[in-house]
């Protein structure tokens, strides 16, 4: 009779002999126990442990969420790409229209003659553009509509500026000037208007809207960059081919910041704490390349917008709308690109240089972008300005 205690199961993968000590002291194991242990070993080779399974499930869950959410957050570019990787303009009709506009001769007083049909035309003329030291003003409003209470800060800033008016290179008597105001709207993305924009006499940009890397759609030249301190570009590349940086004053400290940038004397740590965003200490331009926007531009723009707002209030105009009013003072013909927020399509691209969606505009309460769009549409409909990117349609939402 043969008992189980005398049976041995040899592991086919174990080619080493059992040591004598182990043979003497080992406890006999039933065959079915050995088989169950072997099954567990094989199972571990094919199945994950509880911790590994949990980690794998978490990664799989994140992947599923990403597949759903990322396409919703990042809008699909409206640019057709061939297999060769070559990108084409999203609207050839607009591109051809822009080319036709540039091919024609500059028409003196074009804006002035065409805005006469507007009911607000009287408020669009003879607005001072820059604050000048030789033209003192008795301010009756505080920033940004005036400079009341900022007189001492203003005096220091003006003293650091060698020049206060439009540079002679831009103010040629008897010449016809064309202005281009480049908005930051996502409608500019994929337009391929960069080479057209660069052909204008005066090119106005807003805050930190970049040019480096976006030359194809936004151009490379900048004549006037309207900024407030928190909106100034942080990269030196975005100041290349720039003629002037113009400060829009919203608080006394903005003037101190301008003085600091021009004189290269940094602001104190305490002063910097009062800005709502980190500001630059240096802008790679000479002192004669800085100006201060006259607050009358902001005030007049705000007054013009009151006709279009549904809820009357003290909404401050955007720099974009203010830049258009400024351009009407400087140039005979004015064109716009990158204007017209499309609030009816929340998934659309908000800015040409990032993938933030239009839906994000609902969070801001300072500006009435709907009123500004109606104002700009009226200018386009009257023929006072041209809209190169086509978002300022004549019909109302």
Automatic annotation (TrEMBL):
Q: What is its EC number?
A: 2.4.3.9
Which class of enzymes does this protein belong to?
A: transferase
Topological type in the membrane = Single-pass type II membrane protein
Reactions it catalyzes? a beta-D-Gal-(1->4)-beta-D-Glc-(1<->1)-Cer(d18:1(4E)) + CMP-N-acetyl-beta-neuraminate = a ganglioside GM3 (d18:1(4E)) + CMP + H(+); ganglioside GA1 (d18:1(4E)/18:0) + CMP-N-acetyl-beta-neuraminate = ganglioside GM1 (d18:1(4E)/18:0) + CMP + H(+); a beta-D-Gal-(1<->1')-ceramide + CMP-N-acetyl-beta-neuraminate = N-acetyl-alpha-neuraminosyl-(2->3)-beta-D-galactosyl-(1<->1')-ceramide + CMP + H(+); ganglioside GA2 (d18:1(4E)/18:0) + CMP-N-acetyl-beta-neuraminate = ganglioside GM2 (d18:1(4E)/18:0) + CMP + H(+)
Main subcellular location of this protein, as a coarse class: Golgi
UniProt keyword Chaperone present = no
User: Biological process GO annotation list?
Assistant: lipid metabolic process
What is the recorded function of this protein according to its Swiss-Prot or TrEMBL entry?
Transfers the sialyl group (N-acetyl-alpha-neuraminyl or NeuAc) from CMP-NeuAc to the non-reducing terminal galactose (Gal) of glycosphingolipids forming gangliosides (important molecules involved in the regulation of multiple cellular processes, including cell proliferation and differentiation, apoptosis, embryogenesis, development, and oncogenesis).
This protein is called what? Lactosylceramide alpha-2,3-sialyltransferase
- Look up and give the organism this protein is from: Solea senegalensis
């Amino acid at each position: 009779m043969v008992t189980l205690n005398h049976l041995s199961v040899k592991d086919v993968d174990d080619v080493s002999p059992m040591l004598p000590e182990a043979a003497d002291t080992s406890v006999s194991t039933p065959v079915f126990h050995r088989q169950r242990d072997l099954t567990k070993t094989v199972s571990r080779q094919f199945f994950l442990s509880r911790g590994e399974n949990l980690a794998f499930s978490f990664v799989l869950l994140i992947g599923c969420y990403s597949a759903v959410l990322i396409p919703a957050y990042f809008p699909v570019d409206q640019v057709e790409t061939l297999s060769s990787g070559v990108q084409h303009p999203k609207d050839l009709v607009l591109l051809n229209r822009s080319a036709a506009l540039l091919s024609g001769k500059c028409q003196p007083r074009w804006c002035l003659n065409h805005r006469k049909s507007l009911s607000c035309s009287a408020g669009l003329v003879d607005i001072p553009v820059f604050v000048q030291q030789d033209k003192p003003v008795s301010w009756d409003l505080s920033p940004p509509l005036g400079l009341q209470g900022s007189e001492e800060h203003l005096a220091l800033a003006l003293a650091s500026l060698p020049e206060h008016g439009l540079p002679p290179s831009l103010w040629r008597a008897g010449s016809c000037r064309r202005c281009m105001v480049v908005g930051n709207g996502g409608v500019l993305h994929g337009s391929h208007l960069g080479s057209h924009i660069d052909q204008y006499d005066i090119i106005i940009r807003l805050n930190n809207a970049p040019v480096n890397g976006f030359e194809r759609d936004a151009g490379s030249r900048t004549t006037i960059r309207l900024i407030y301190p928190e909106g100034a570009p942080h990269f030196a590349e975005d100041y290349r081919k720039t003629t002037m940086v113009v400060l829009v004053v919203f608080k006394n400290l903005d003037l101190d910041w301008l003085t600091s940038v021009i004189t290269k004397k940094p602001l104190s740590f305490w002063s910097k704490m009062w800005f709502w965003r980190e500001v630059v200490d240096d802008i790679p331009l000479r002192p004669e390349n800085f100006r201060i926007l006259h607050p009358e531009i902001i005030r007049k723009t705000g007054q013009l917008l009151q006709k279009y707002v549904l809820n009357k209030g003290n909404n401050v105009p955007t720099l974009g709308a203010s830049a258009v009013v400024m351009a009407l003072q400087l140039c005979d013909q004015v064109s716009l690109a990158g204007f017209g927020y499309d609030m009816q399509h929340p998934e659309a691209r908000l800015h040409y240089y990032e993938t933030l969606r239009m839906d994000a505009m609902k969070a801001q309460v300072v500006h009435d972008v709907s009123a500004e769009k109606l104002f700009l549409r009226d200018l386009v409909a009257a023929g006072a300005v041209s809209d190169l990117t086509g978002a300022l349609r004549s019909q109302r939402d």
